[in-house]
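Just curious: can you write whichever protein you like plus the matching structure tokens?

***
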Amino acid sequence: MSDKAVLTEYSLSVPKIKTPLDLVLVSDIHERKSDDILDLLKKSKPDLILIAGDTFERYYDEESETKPKKNPFLSAVKGTAYYANYLLMRVFSKNNRADTAATYRFLTEASKFAPVFISLGNHDKKLSEDDLAMLRGNGIFLLDNADVRATVGGIDINLGGLSYTPDESWLEEFSKKQGFKLLLCHAPEYFDEMIEEKNIDLTLAGHNHGGQFKLFGKGVLSSRSGFFPKYDSGVFHNRMVVSAGCSNTIALPRWGNPRELVIIHLKPKKEP
């Protein structure tokens, strides 16, 4: 078991691009110290840095969350785990605490290497005025149920961010735009619920922390999807990449599931 971060690389052939692009996917920093993630990012030399939520620790009204019906057994397990983890963190993991300054430093440094686009997850829905000022001051684009058109390496890309509290009407309009469409979406479960049938070329997600522990290569537990989440980490349907996340938010080390920075090498898809 180790909390050492690794660089995970994927190569995807996608339509609507004419030259290769290198994208870095960051997710689930949770205001933890991420110097090793930043070192990996510097070495990767990406064209774009894309952050798929839970960068901060800014909670929101859970009543507005789109989520499945509660399972009483799972709710009891999660509740017990939450309080057990809280006690363990207080006693054994004093160096693994949320620190806004660490995240500000990470984002400031990252913005020096490539354009940065960020969407929101369940932990950072309510950003403060200081957070927003920091993003603006570093030229970081916040995509909160919103999109922009960017030109990277001579390629026009529609970049969208579907927030954890999703706006499906915005998503519908985004899917109708012409050209290559890339979506940041913190919760990969939204792919089945509202993205799969839409004309969106690539979705980047996180949220499930890789299942926290790996058993026979499969993630074991997700806070939203329960045991053995369908989307733990990896490439799915050749249209979605899910990160195992950049931080460890529990007192125990991740097992068989290291913290990771993901780099995605996009290549033009050859027409048949």
In short: The CA atoms of residues 61 and 76 lie 21 Å apart. The first strand starts at residue 6 and ends at 14.
